Amino acid sequence: MTDTVDRTGSPADADALRIATIGTGVITRGFARAVTISGRARIVLAHSRDAQRAAQFAAEIGADAGESDLAAILTDDGVDAVYVASPNGVHAEQVRAALTAGKHVLCEKPLVLHAAEAEELFALADATGVLLVEAMRSAYDPGMQLIRDLLPQLGRVRRAGLRYTQRSSRYDRVLAGERVAVFDLAVGGGALNDLGVYTVHPLVDLFGEPQQVVGAPVLVGPDAEGAGLIVATYDGFVADLSYSKITASDLPSEIQGEKGTMTFDHIAMPRRIVVTPVGGEPVEHLIDGPLDDPQRGTDGNLSYEIDAFADAVAAGVEPAGSRERSLAAARVIDAARGA
């Protein structure tokens, strides 16, 4: 527990969404910086099960206070919403508790480990009159919106290859024989949940839910998933989704249509999109997102989801398509895992 802190704020931030964070990892630090860039929210409490760590982390990210008692956070009238960025395996439990307490929830991807859990939690959000949104940052990015806008230029889509490859520095620990949570399937880790999910969401966003899904994981130790491939088939169209935490690649993602081909540089934050008409010259589109800050990496990218979440809470309506995308993505991941 922490001492009572005045969280009424100044008149300047009176309309800011008051958020409590759960999780003290790298993503929460990036989220906190993005909150500052956005200006639409403010972090009032930072949670860690260890009281000293909670206070320390709160100071590091600029939160009003730290709190080790999750129940105290969920009953605090000074908290409007909870950002869940804890290990994947405890998302469902913590999201369920927050929704039951009447708090809006922005939960890091993957929302939960199975589609049935996602359906249950969305139903609970409806029953308690609050919003549940999966924090899929690319969905709200201007680069992804441009991809949606340009897609009709390709004509009927026949092939797509969506990729996210980023070698993890923690892979060396796996090679040394350690059990590392971010790779560990037993606790909700693994390359699919960490990176592959960034390919699954655009797939269902752009093309809808596939008719058939086949997954092929690459295991690098007991219950340790380092990479993988998903083949998703539609009527007259096939897509492959590749992801890896154990190799490195700069290959772009690609969508091939009968009238042209589109490539884009980064599935989670598209900034260079090239459309090449059949028999024509390539046309380059560069994105200079108004919230991007090169000194802060993807924090500007994270800010778009904060804006969308704040707008949704203010309006009392989920971001358009967010629930459908989350449920469809969860079903694709279930199918890829053979669940």
TrEMBL record:
Transmembrane segments: none annotated. The keyword NAD applies. Residues 153-262 form the GFO/IDH/MocA-like oxidoreductase domain. One of its GO terms (molecular function) is nucleotide binding. The keyword NAD applies. Gene3D superfamilies: Dihydrodipicolinate Reductase, domain 2, NAD(P)-binding Rossmann-like Domain. Residues 17-132 form the Gfo/Idh/MocA-like oxidoreductase N-terminal domain. Pfam families: GFO_IDH_MocA (PF01408), GFO_IDH_MocA_C3 (PF22725). InterPro entries: Gfo/Idh/MocA-like_OxRdtase_N, GFO_IDH_MocA-like_dom, NAD(P)-bd_dom_sf. Keywords: NAD. This is Uncharacterized protein.
